[in-house]
């Protein structure tokens, strides 16, 4: 600040400087930490990136449409967008909700789509994501991931947050 | 404000302590309210976070019990309540002890069931100004921030509890200890989840729950002891209240008194003391007795409610002091 007026007392200048350095350091650490944490107990995200994303799908029009040759619908597109970002190939597993949730709990699949609303009773068995859209009746639409795999959950939800932002900016 | 607990006028030190304790408790209730609301806002699926929140709700009980108890205890005795309203403190102590024990048991149950059921708390991303941030960071920040007030205020309360002889305030200081320990455990547990240890949260909660339950149990036990007329103790219930021995010693100074036994029970802030004396003369004057009582009452603000009875035989159960060179017990007295 005024180091020139008080050359023998460097305290004002140095007192001004370290906080800025510290702030930058903390911000960097937080960013690094923000990227590195959280980690998965079962390393889901590590396996998915550049590998396969195992997605359970159960039909729920209009969100998930399984009548065609390939799964279709907005939730299918959403998952494929995410898979593109994670450089993963989507492997579809079809089944009833109950079957899929059991597979999810056992770690046989990573994710379930099926037009679940944010009040889904499966929240005890699966981790519920933030809503990616609001349906006409006002409930949020969510995806189910394996409980405790917070690295994957965080990555997926980060994708959802960024998508919301992009949608908000383009509007 | 009120300068007396019933008919017991407060010395300046205690008057100041009481006013301070009231201010601290109002401040603490405000902080608690903010904490509970903040916790509710960021509460994710962390078990420890939910428990910490439920625990904060229970933390309302001791400060409320103190404020109500300290107010009720200031009422002057009536013919319907001839002993005054001091026991309001004992009731508040019991309520606080139960709340504290409840917190501890709740932590044990939640931590243990999470571990046994292998519940894996999902903690995902939140949007902070459009940027995804791991909710765990916010949870850690809130949990650590919630530690600050209980650490500082808890220390102050413990000291004031001593000055006021207020066991509710002391139980509340124990509750504050539980509060900051839970905050620290939550922060550690969520950080543990961050590095992939799904069990960290529950394990941290379980770790601290044992000492919190112990604090709660001790407060319940001490409150019940005091309410069932156990011998008055120091504010931490660790030893008999020194005023009992002091009264005995002072009364024994009177040349007419051969032996003295005092039994005192904890009424709350104050003690109710009954002093039994045996004298060397067959007749005593009312004026002498009254003077002895006045001198005894002046020894401590806590013993305003003091009865002296002249009896032929020593009281078998009250704490006794005997004349002669040794004052430890009847054996020595008999030998000398």
TrEMBL record, chain A:
Q: Which domain of life is it from?
A: Bacteria
**Organism of provenance:** Sediminivirga luteola
Name of the protein in question:
Solute-binding protein family 3/N-terminal domain-containing protein
- Pfam families per record: SBP_bac_3 (PF00497)
| Solute-binding protein family 3/N-terminal domain span | 69-135
Automatic annotation (TrEMBL), chain B:
Q: Which Pfam families does the protein's record reference?
A: Cation_efflux
A GO term for molecular function: monoatomic cation transmembrane transporter activity
| Similarity-based family | Belongs to the cation diffusion facilitator (CDF) transporter (TC 2.A.4) family.
Q: Where can this protein be found?
A: Membrane
Its keywords, alphabetically, are: Membrane, Transmembrane, Transmembrane helix, Transport
Q: Does the keyword Aminoacyl-tRNA synthetase apply?
A: no
- What are the boundaries of the region Disordered? 314-336
What membrane topology was assigned to this protein in its record?
Answer: Multi-pass membrane protein
Q: What is this protein called?
A: Cobalt transporter
The UniProt entry, under Gene3D superfamilies, shows: Cation efflux protein transmembrane domain
Q: Where are the transmembrane segments?
A: 26-45, 57-73, 85-109, 129-153, 180-200
Chief location category: membrane
Classify the source by domain of life: Bacteria
A GO cellular-component term linked to this record: membrane
Residues annotated as domain Cation efflux protein transmembrane: 29-227
């Amino acid at each position: 600040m005024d180091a020139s007026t008080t050359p023998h007392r460097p305290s004002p200048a140095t007192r001004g400087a370290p906080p800025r350095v510290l702030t930058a350091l903390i911000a960097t650490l937080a960013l690094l930490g923000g990227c590195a944490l959280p980690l998965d107990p079962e390393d889901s995200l590590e396996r998915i990136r550049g590998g396969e994303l195992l997605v359970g799908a159960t039909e729920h029009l209009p969100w998930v449409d399984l009548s065609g040759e390939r799964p279709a619908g907005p939730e299918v597109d959403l998952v494929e967008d995410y898979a593109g970002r994670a450089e993963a190939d989507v492997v579809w597993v079809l089944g009833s909700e109950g079957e899929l949730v059991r597979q999810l709990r056992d770690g046989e699949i990573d994710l379930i789509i099926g037009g679940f609303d944010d009040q889904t009773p499966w929240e005890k068995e699966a981790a519920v994501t933030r809503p990616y859209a609001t349906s006409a009746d006002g409930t949020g639409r969510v995806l189910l991931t394996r409980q405790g795999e917070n690295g994957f959950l965080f990555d997926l939800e980060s994708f959802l947050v960024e998508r919301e932002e992009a949608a908000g900016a383009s509007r | 404000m009120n300068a007396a607990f019933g008919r017991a006028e407060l010395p300046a030190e205690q008057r100041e302590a009481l006013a301070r304790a009231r201010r601290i408790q109002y401040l603490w209730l405000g902080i608690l309210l903010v904490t509970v609301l903040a916790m509710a806002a960021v509460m994710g699926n962390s078990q420890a976070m939910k428990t910490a929140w439920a625990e904060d709700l229970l933390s309302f009980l001791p400060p409320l019990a103190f404020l109500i108890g300290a107010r009720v205890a200031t009422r002057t005795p009536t013919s319907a309540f001839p002993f005054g309203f001091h026991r309001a403190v004992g009731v508040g102590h019991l309520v606080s002890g139960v709340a504290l024990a409840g917190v501890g048991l709740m932590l044990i149950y939640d931590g243990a069931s999470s571990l046994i059921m292998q519940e894996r708390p999902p903690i995902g991303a939140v949007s902070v100004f459009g940027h995804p941030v791991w909710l765990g960071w916010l949870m850690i920040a809130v949990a650590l921030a919630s530690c600050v007030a209980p650490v500082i205020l808890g220390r102050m309360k413990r000291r004031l509890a001593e000055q006021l002889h207020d066991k509710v305030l002391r139980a509340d200081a124990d509750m504050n200890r539980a509060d900051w320990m839970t905050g620290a455990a939550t922060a550690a547990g969520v950080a543990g989840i961050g590095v992939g240890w799904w069990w960290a949260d529950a394990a941290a909660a379980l770790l601290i729950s044992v000492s919190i339950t112990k604090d709660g149990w001790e407060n319940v036990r001490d409150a019940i002891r005091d309410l069932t007329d156990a011998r008055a103790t120091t504010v931490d219930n660790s030893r008999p209240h020194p005023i009992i021995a002091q009264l005995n010693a002072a009364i024994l100074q009177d040349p007419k008194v051969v032996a003295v036994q005092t039994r005192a029970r904890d009424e709350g802030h104050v003690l109710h003391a009954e002093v039994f004396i045996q004298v060397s003369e067959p007749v005593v004057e009312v004026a002498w007795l009254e003077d002895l009582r006045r001198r005894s009452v002046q020894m401590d603000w806590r013993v305003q409610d003091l009865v002296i009875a002249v009896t032929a035989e020593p009281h078998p159960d009250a704490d006794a002091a005997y004349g002669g060179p040794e004052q430890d017990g009847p054996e020595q007295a008999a030998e000398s």
